[in-house]
Design brief:
Blueprint lengths: L5 E6 L12 E10 L3 E3 L1 E18 L2 E20 L7 E3 L2 E10 L8 E2 L4 E12 L6 E6 L17 E11 L2 E12 L4 E2 L4 E10 L7 E13 L10 E14 L5 E10 L14 E11 L9 E8 L18
Family: Belongs to the arrestin family.
Organism: Clytia hemisphaerica
Protein name: Arrestin C-terminal-like domain-containing protein
């Protein structure tokens, strides 16, 4: 019994999980046959695209919004021709075709949203057959824009403050003032700790015993089609990390601590596409069960790709965010 033809994409450095703009990606398309195979061509494409789709209910109508954006598309034909009726025969055994692609400059990081959208880069190798379904295989390539935490503009802390007169219905309990600071810098990589300093001046008649710190991803999705006007947007907030801070009863409360940690799979900040933009902020909120107007501060941060103290001289610096 004859085995089915096999086709695979093998990278020269299989251990490299992430590539950056300006880098070269090399490897081989490998075909294994136990008998000769007539084909039109053997080709490899490497491309990137963004895609979003979401549904909204307006009155009794259901509206579906969709956006697509092609980032780039490369093609390499190893054997045969793309637009030709001629045939070529692939030999029996294992055949390897080498390739090299350069990752384009100025492209966004890979991103997978929750149900709504993605930014994806893929290679697809294909054997185009004359009278049967084509034989193909896909391989996802993860790309990160260079966002360097060592750049001077990211090496300053960022802080904010707010004052809230807390109460419930017609009852007023007095003001609570809160300030929060992320010291030292404003850009962090996945897996890094985000420290928080917090000061609370409680001049209300109620106790303040705890606060919540969250790392929130805001994804902005836009309907968009080539040659058409941009459509509506939808904004989704996702809590990707959270921690609690407990206080002893006091008028003046202070917290200096580790804050929270950005998960290892956190996507970088992303602003390059029309249809998908990704940003982050740290939310510091005093937990008050007896009121709806809890004091809250939102501190914007950047999720980067080059950690503090790591040199990125081997990465194309023209792509720095």
């Amino acid at each position: 019994m004859m085995a089915d033809p096999k086709i695979s994409i093998e990278l020269s450095n299989e251990k490299q999980e992430i590539f950056y703009p300006g880098e070269k990606i090399s490897g081989h398309v490998v075909i294994e046959l136990d008998k000769p195979l007539e084909t039109k061509n053997v080709c490899l494409t490497f491309g990137g695209k963004g895609d979003v789709v979401w549904v909204e209910t307006i009155a009794d109508d259901i509206e579906t919004y969709h956006g697509k954006e092609e980032i780039f598309m490369f093609e390499h034909i190893f054997y045969g021709q793309r637009k030709s009726s001629s045939r070529v025969v692939l030999p029996t055994g294992r055949t390897s075709y080498s390739f090299v692609f350069s990752v384009p400059n100025g492209i966004p990081s890979s991103y997978t949203g929750i149900k709504i959208g993605f930014i994806r880069y893929e290679m697809e190798a294909q054997i185009t057959l004359a009278y049967k379904s084509n034989i193909k295989v896909k391989r996802t390539i993860h790309i990160h824009e260079v966002i360097d935490c060592n750049l001077p503009r990211y090496l300053s802390g960022i802080g904010m403050s707010c004052t809230e007169d807390v109460g419930f219905c017609c009852y007023k309990y007095g003001p609570i003032r809160m300030s929060a600071l992320i010291p030292g810098r404003s850009c962090f990589c996945p897996g890094e700790n985000i420290p928080i300093e917090m000061m609370i001046e409680n001049n209300s008649s109620k106790l303040v015993t705890e606060a919540t710190i969250k790392l929130i991803q805001t994804a902005i999705y836009r309907e968009h089609h080539e040659h058409h006007k941009d459509g509506p947007i939808t904004v989704r907030d996702y809590t990707i990390a959270k921690s609690k801070v407990l206080f002893k009863d006091s008028t003046y409360l202070r917290y200096i601590g580790e804050g929270l940690t950005a998960p290892e799979n956190t996507s970088p900040t992303n602003w390059r596409l029309k249809i998908i933009k990704v940003r982050y902020h740290v939310e510091v909120r005093i937990d008050l069960s007896w009121t709806t107007n809890e004091p809250c501060i939102e501190i914007p941060i950047i999720i980067g790709t080059v950690p503090l103290g790591i040199k990125s001289k081997d990465i194309n610096q023209n792509n720095w965010f």
